[in-house]
Amino acid sequence: MSDILPLDVIGRRVEVNGEYATVRFCGAVPPVAGLWLGVEWDNPERGKHDGSHEGTMYFKCRHPTGGSFVRPSKVNFGDDFLTALKKRYVLEDGPDDDENSCSLKVGSKQVQTIGFEHITKKQSQLRALQDISLWNCAVSRAGEQGRIAEACPNIRVVNLSKNLLSTWDEVVLIAEQLKDLEALDLSENKLQFPSGSPTLTRTFSTLKTLVLNKTGITWTEVLHCAPSWPVLEELYLKSNNISISERPVNVLQKMRSLDLSSNPSIDESQLSLIADLPRLEHLVLSDIGLSSIHFPDAEIGCKTSMFPALKYLIVNDNQISEWSFINELDKLQSLQALSCTRNPLSKGDKAEEIIIAKIGQLRTLNRCQILPEERRGAELDYRKAFGKEWRQAGGHPDPDKNRPNAAFLAAHPRYQLLCCKYGAPEDEELKTQQPFMLKNQLLTLKIKCSNQPEQQILEKQLPDSMTVQKVKGLLSRLLKVPVSELLLSYESSKMPGREIELENDLQPLQFYSVENGDCLLVRW
Q1: Closest CA to 185 of 108, 258, 243, 123
Q2: Which CATH architecture has domain 79-91+114-255?
Q3: Boundaries of each CAP-Gly domain copy (predicted)?
Q4: Contact 71, 65 (CB under 8 A)
């Protein structure tokens, strides 16, 4: 804290008693004597007014209570990069470092924020530092030109999130002294970006990961700066209220991973503007309000040319409620992994099973590997569940008579393929089941822990419609063993000594002909 003000005080980021703000005014505020700073708080609840006092407007705020006047002596304008680095890695070592140690991520890289005693003697020297975190260290400027390069020339990974950097130009002054910089996190710095394309330099010539979450950057500003990031592979733009307004032409062509989550202005039509990125493998679209997607260049059963390299798609926390969304994803030629949690569509009991059946090349769903037997079970169940609808739409086991209508094919694009793979559903499969009566469907089963002979044999009544997965869940709670470690089989009372493995978690007990008096065998 100091009464000496920077020359470029307007627009500077500051910290006051732990709260962050931007300076919007510097001068007198009559009738009170002395110098005042008018600040706009990041948290508008911290303020008192809209930048006016006694009828005079001194500065403007986006929120009616976002502004305050504070004395310069109360304001922290921050430190230069090297001063903050020395405080974190050299001067603040001591016996309490163990308690303060933690780690942060810069993109996909883990960065240790520990003090002097937890890095080797060589690493404690500034020149030996390669991965650093200055998270929440009040860094506001580069400092004297050349000092960073002289003191710590080998830095490759930098976390500068939640600091007091005000402009992209100040970031450039830091980065141009780090010739080997590969990863940079600038999240939660309210940055002013250049309005036009900056002069091309080699400042970011080695940068592969850039995190700009909550920086206020726009898509236009991204494209203006992108020519300076020639080898960028990972870009994180979470929570910036971004709208994709134009295609990236001759920029971002090496980008493999893009995070656009929590940008509610992005819609389906805007996604088409980034669909031609040739190397984009990982796309995060969580919490953007997405409800639909369409690839107009591909007909039913065909693959789209859009997003040609996309392997991993995350669309959690959206408004996806129609199966047409999942049908469209099957058109993506490279898709292998999908995360689709906390959507209206995913609330049904069989939602995951249907997604597996609808997207043929999917290997991972909601971060869980899809095993071959799980896929087979899901596809067979799907084929059976919609078999009657298929027949009513014109489907037939005889290929010469099999002509389902366009509406059915649009709703179930893979159904014909599943019939080719497993055969058309038989009449017996499509018969309506008798109404479920619990008393007639309960099985009394013994439960024996095969590799735990001291464990008492249990006896339980279970519905024959209960899936193997749900049985495992029940046993997991009873035996205090993780579900993933449980293996189930059973011995029939009619065939003593013969053990039958319950290998498909999605199938009910009745699928395996489990009957009253049989014994479930549990191993882990």
Answers
A1: 108
A2: Alpha-Beta Horseshoe (3.80)
A3: 27-71
A4: no
DSSP labels for 191-260? PBPPSSPPPP-STTTT--EEE-TTS---HHHHHHHGGG-TT--EEE--SS-----S---SSSTT--EEE-
Which residue shows structure tokens 């939640």?
162
- Predicted local confidence at residue 97, as pLDDT: 47
CA dihedral 475, 476, 477, 480 (to 10 degrees): 120
Contacts of 457 (CB under 8 A, 6+ apart): 446, 447, 448
What dotted CATH number matches 442-523? 3.10.20.90
Q: Which pTM does this prediction carry? A: 0.77
pLDDT value of position 477: 80
Considering only the top CATH level, what class is 12-74? mainly beta
Longest dimension (CA), the chain: 98
The confidence score (pLDDT) of residue 430 equals 77
Looking at residue 108, its pLDDT comes to 65
**pLDDT for the residue numbered 521:** 92
425-437 pLDDT, tens digit per residue, is 887 777 765 444 4
Residues in contact with 30: Cβ distance below 8 Å, sequence separation at least 6, in sequence order: none
- Taking phi first (over 0 means left), then psi (-120 to 50 degrees means alpha), and beta for anything else, what does residue 123 get? alpha
Q: Is 497 left (phi over 0), alpha (psi -120 to 50) or beta?
A: left
Residue type, 174: I
Q: State which residues of the chain have pLDDT below 70.
A: 1-3, 91-124, 198, 432-440
